[in-house]
Amino acid sequence: MNFTKESNGAFFSESFWLPQNVTWEDFNRFEDKDGLRMPKIQDVFVAWKLVPFVLLSKFVVEKFVAPKLGKWAGIKDELREKPKHVEILEKAHRANPWGRWSNQAISALTKQLDWTDEQIHEWFKARRKYATETTLEKFCESVWRAMFFICIMVYGIYCHWSKEWVWDLKRCYENFPQPVTEDLYWYFIISLANYSAWNISQFWDVQRKYYRILLFHHLLAVALLVGQWVAGVHRMGLLICTVHDVGDLLLEAIKCLKYLNLLRAKAWWLWIFSFVNGGLWIATRNIILPFYLIPGIYRHAPFGMLQSFPYSCFRGGACNISSFAFNSNHVLVIMLSCLGLLHVYWTCLIFRISYLALIVGKLEDDTREVSDDESDGPKMKLKSTKKE
Prior knowledge:
Its main location: membrane. It is found in: Membrane. The protein has 388 residues and is mainly alpha-helical. It has helices at 3-11, 14-17, 24-28, 41-49, 51-72, 87-95, 103-113, 117-131, 135-161, 182-201, 211-230, 234-246, 251-259, 268-300, 328-360; strands at residues 36-37, 180-181. A two-stranded antiparallel sheet has the order 1-2. Helix 9 crosses helix 12 (234-246) and helix 12 (234-246) runs antiparallel to helix 14. The radius of gyration is 25 Å and the shape is elongated. The two termini are 47 Å apart.
């Protein structure tokens, strides 16, 4: 028995990936010509081969282009001094790099080192400050992200603007399986290469307060892109990707302005900027995706989801669990629903940051920083909890 062949046959089961009366042969029989091609699993590997190029481009922008722009704009290159190496404290820092420390933990360290509480706190404060990226480093990463988001968003809108299924979701699944045009093919390749590169670079990128959630988001984005491509539902999948990208348009640009000290808390134009950014985010991430695109999958995908259990129970059909057939469409909807929940979480963060900037008068972002509480030595809130 050919184990590899059997495994591939089980993984690429037609009953899971494809609607009834559609087989992989329908994909293979199509002759690529006139700028049209059928999506293939090999395209995923083409995208992954471009990941080193994306990482190289990111490196060049962040290390050579953006620093010059930042220094020209007045951002100072801060010098960070690493505290003297103390193995016991280094080990404790690695175990809890951003969390709070209990009084018992601090007391145990003071006994081991014969230090005072104040000395322990000062060492941790210095070590965390050393591990925190400088303003220039944060600016450089935001420049790269802003550049990429603007380019991919403009290209995505350009690719979709003339496509009839953008305005009629039913056409996303007409005459399934459909070939993909050359412009959308490259939109998929670039998007998958970018999200795959993020899954690698996040281990040395500027650390966010919600690091694990961001990791889950990037993995989810890659899984969604690959899944919709393999299943041949690229029209709906890439339309969702474009809507997703539009929501990111102004976020990194706002961060760049913050690092350049061009933002002023409570300023009237910040109200306008926040309103436009928040409106764009909510419209795309919290309205169009969950209330227009995801329901469109249920209504129009050629998997008969509305005719099977449990949806048939609410539509006057036979409420029979035997009619339920788990397929790739269910997986895509589940992943999109998870993405929608992440968007709700980030919307709350955006509202919180906007409230602090517009009402309280405090400018804040989503990166890790050494807080004022931590800089007060023994006045710290000594609580054994960890930031995500």
